[in-house]
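dumping the sequnces here before i forget
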Amino acid sequence: MVVVMAPDATAEDVAHVVEKVEAVGGKAFVSQGVDRTIIGLVGDIDSFHGLNLRTLRGVAAVHRISDPYKLVSRQHHPARSTVWVGKPGATVPVGPATFTFVAGPCAVESPEQTLEAATMAKAAGASLLRGGAYKPRTSPYAFQGLGRRGLDILASVGAAVGLPIVTEVVDARDVAEVAEQADMLQIGTRNMANFGLLQAVGESGKPVLLKRGMTATIEEWLMAAEYVAQRGNLDIVLCERGIRTFEPATRNTLDISAVPVVQVASHLPVIVDPSHASGRKDLVVPLSRAAIAVGADGIIVDVHPDPEVALCDGPQALHGPDLRALAQAVRQIPPLVGRGPAEAATVTPPG
Amino acid sequence: MVVVMAPDATAEDVAHVVEKVEAVGGKAFVSQGVDRTIIGLVGDIDSFHGLNLRTLRGVAAVHRISDPYKLVSRQHHPARSTVWVGKPGATVPVGPATFTFVAGPCAVESPEQTLEAATMAKAAGASLLRGGAYKPRTSPYAFQGLGRRGLDILASVGAAVGLPIVTEVVDARDVAEVAEQADMLQIGTRNMANFGLLQAVGESGKPVLLKRGMTATIEEWLMAAEYVAQRGNLDIVLCERGIRTFEPATRNTLDISAVPVVQVASHLPVIVDPSHASGRKDLVVPLSRAAIAVGADGIIVDVHPDPEVALCDGPQALHGPDLRALAQAVRQIPPLVGRGPAEAATVTPPG
Amino acid sequence: MVVVMAPDATAEDVAHVVEKVEAVGGKAFVSQGVDRTIIGLVGDIDSFHGLNLRTLRGVAAVHRISDPYKLVSRQHHPARSTVWVGKPGATVPVGPATFTFVAGPCAVESPEQTLEAATMAKAAGASLLRGGAYKPRTSPYAFQGLGRRGLDILASVGAAVGLPIVTEVVDARDVAEVAEQADMLQIGTRNMANFGLLQAVGESGKPVLLKRGMTATIEEWLMAAEYVAQRGNLDIVLCERGIRTFEPATRNTLDISAVPVVQVASHLPVIVDPSHASGRKDLVVPLSRAAIAVGADGIIVDVHPDPEVALCDGPQALHGPDLRALAQAVRQIPPLVGRGPAEAATVTPPG
Amino acid sequence: MVVVMAPDATAEDVAHVVEKVEAVGGKAFVSQGVDRTIIGLVGDIDSFHGLNLRTLRGVAAVHRISDPYKLVSRQHHPARSTVWVGKPGATVPVGPATFTFVAGPCAVESPEQTLEAATMAKAAGASLLRGGAYKPRTSPYAFQGLGRRGLDILASVGAAVGLPIVTEVVDARDVAEVAEQADMLQIGTRNMANFGLLQAVGESGKPVLLKRGMTATIEEWLMAAEYVAQRGNLDIVLCERGIRTFEPATRNTLDISAVPVVQVASHLPVIVDPSHASGRKDLVVPLSRAAIAVGADGIIVDVHPDPEVALCDGPQALHGPDLRALAQAVRQIPPLVGRGPAEAATVTPPG
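..and the predicted 3d for all of it:
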């Protein structure tokens, strides 16, 4: 940490800061400049937080230097992690050596629609099936998902087509029930800072897909992952899904730079959701190509057998020629960035 | 709703839209322009949502015209509402005729600190006591609040100084417990879109203080209020607390315009939190003055007997001369905008 | 400046930084932490910029500590400045002791419309007349202003009603011509970073009204003022006019906090433009009240005798009852924050 | 255009709107809903703008339906354009069939540095040379470029290595001088809304590289292009260079979606600047890969023989292994998205 004193801070003010820091076992290095004095702090950062340094007389600013997250940081864990999703004997990797394609319907509507979407997804090369049973909706008047029944449908379709399933959980009270059937628990963008829910999935024993809050900084997103990790669960896959900006042409602005930024800062895998980022079907394929090329560890997209009758986010769901174009990109581009396909059949989880 | 057809849409595409609209009982008015055709829809908007109009061939865009919220809208409820907070015989109004000053410590730390802060708050003119027992924190390593014990302290201090209490609830599982003691339940900025929690407080029977999500549009904020209202609870006070922008000089950017915008769109009262908006003690008094002058129905501020040792947000807590300046503003400015003080003793709730 | 080394930086990397700093006459204070080393730099900041410290091996980040602006900073000029606008014998102050009301039509359309607007403005208490002759418009198909002819009209109307005039200049080639007649030169939001134009008005010998870029940080805005000041012109009034955010309810988001933030950082006066910030007539009066109460040194608003036929920004122009309400606020609120009226007749510029 | 009436608008208010529209030769289609009436307008949009519809009694909102730009729109010009840059006999295409790599130093510092950078750029596959002679800088204390002398250096280096040159012009007064030597004129992000400058380059007879304003919407960016086009110059290449958001990890947020969005809306070519978007050398290669894969018509990057001593933006300049990785991406990825290299020798401009 670095404490910046105000131009009119007195020698006494500086001494008071040093004293406080030393009282909690830290060391304070004073650099006296022409206009200002700065003080470098060395020691246990958590103990410094308790000092309320910004409230002390003469203090103009306090800058944190180290990353506030620990377990998910790459600093003490330089090798990038692979997360394995699925039942024993048929797990799918998400990590630096492969490219994982996750696809399925935004919402589970019926057994038929789900099976059809899953079949399309698998044929296009998907190795994980996503589908929403519990839906967080901005409007209380919008379709809220089938809940428990949707979960049952998704699980049986996943078993039928042979793909592990990923589904969202929106309430800490539902985690145990969902974890019984799902192979991976998704935390949606609106719940990224729902700390009770993060802790609940951290204790669930299942891999977690953690979407970025639509207005969260990358640092806040990694802090959310830290909440999960702190409960003993490091099987976390991050998912960039667009951030809120002033640009109205797309529903959100896909922050493609977040992928390499996260890969420098954290050992966790990171994938991209081009469907929710753009909200426009015609952008899903080009953005998926960009995601692969930038080095993402996977993508997650909406597919639907008949977008015209979809109960949720129809305008962004792929099918037909677009889905074929995406399947081609998923085959062709990953090898150019040193990645193989992520198929359950061909890999063996470690240990 | 207005459907805008693409320049190359065919007469058949237009007819398909009209047919769909009529199939759910709506009427479609076609305006054929030089470059484009637009179709005005009249009827039940919820039935139109199910049509996925944006996915139909030839459709370029769909614009909603009406407000998506109903119960909280001012359209069918033109008179602005007053929400009454407190125990029978000692309730405090928040509404258009008064100006309500809410103050207290960001976090309840101990009986002594809470009593001292409450005494300061009351002396400065506050008529409601706020205090945090359950704290949502960005870092899992930060102070998480005293929980149940903090709630007990707050309740007994509130009774001792004679002020109704407002406190945050962060988990749907805690709502019943908190509602037993609190006079008003606060939903924090990070939980504005936690729909399960919104529904739980909607069923609690207690008034709700609903903070704006730091990246929520005003419309999304009113939709969150609609979630609460839909469960039968219209005792909702909105709280503008700053939005996330590119400007780093303040923790958030106080969206002062949100106050009159909300007052045009909704009948609910709206107050301002200048402490969390700015994160800077030196801005709390000027921003409070601005909030009163713009016509807010109240403000909520952090006070602490000794900010230097506060466990939460010390740098923004008021005390001493700043608190006296604020007390003066709260006395002097409201009469200029047609408001009286909001004192429990002097008012009688209606009905 | 503070240089933060990467966790894996070597002692040699640190030595290289120290060596570079000392080579340009600076001093480097090394604080060796557990995880990282930080280096505090003392000396001439401009010489440090030439070092490209961020490109050196082992350097993770470089933080600037001092303000990058000098002439406009309050650091070496603690007293807040007053800028005087007008012809000798009839100058109007903008500064900490007064509250200055600037009003007039967004665009000068005709002698009649301008005179009528100016008369309305004066009757409402305005002491400076604003009016646009050269208009920067987003669309090349929109009304671009009357140019030179508009300037002539504005000048003769200003003389007729006895108010100094403020008008925008959009091209460095026009500065001399405009400065001949205008009492104050306005730099619009789109030109805040048009450095050639800033330098030209810096040499014009006239006071400058510098609007904040709609997406400029406060620091960048003060750097733009520094460009003007560097050419010898410190008669600069800053104008907050709203920033671009994700909120669509208002044209821009008025950053009301910018007023006290600027007043802490700079000695220059700062006023508020609620008309352009909101783009909504119904918000101009409440936002003006907020601006006065927060401590702004003035406001600038659009008035028009007949907004329905205005050639520019009609929807935000005041007239009738709204203008009367504003006039009342301008009389009543400033005394509560220690300010008197800014009338040319009652003040004498210093020196 | 669509006019939305307020819920309480009267039949008379509706009639007044219709009358105004018909008075300027338009047609008004009235759709009377349960809560509201909407009116679709057909006719000349520019004549409607003069009506100030938003100021009429009973009007709640006015929505524009058509694009406000015309010459640059793809609506009446469905084929995507190719812009040719260079001297007769050696022009380089920027357009849908090729991928154009533009590289060079951020600032021209000396003949030696520029030649070395140009040689590196060409070896890496660049077919256009960029270099800054006139530099717009946020701080008046930063290096402002060599001006005319820098232009001379760049021109002679371009001739020596056989690459057409692209350079920024920051002042309308310099356009003629710069256009004499430059093969393409760049408008920087800070000048995107400097309408006088846009008109000047529109009359220069040279192709224009128009960077997106860091806080401009895509529509505003296309309107800026319309300013250039309106002066008779349609040789415009758009350049996405990152927008301002709340995320601090990168200097700007690269809006990668802008590429396909622009390609749907406009026939103009669009390239990407990953250096200025990120400000971080370690992100330039992954973001360049993303730009190619998303379908951009080219990229523009900073290269410098010795970033440690660069006078401008050293931290983002490529050299060594990073530049080799980029050269490889530029060879390998474009064929996957149907593009060939953009070499002057192999192509013949049409006509």
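The mean pLDDT of chain D is 89.
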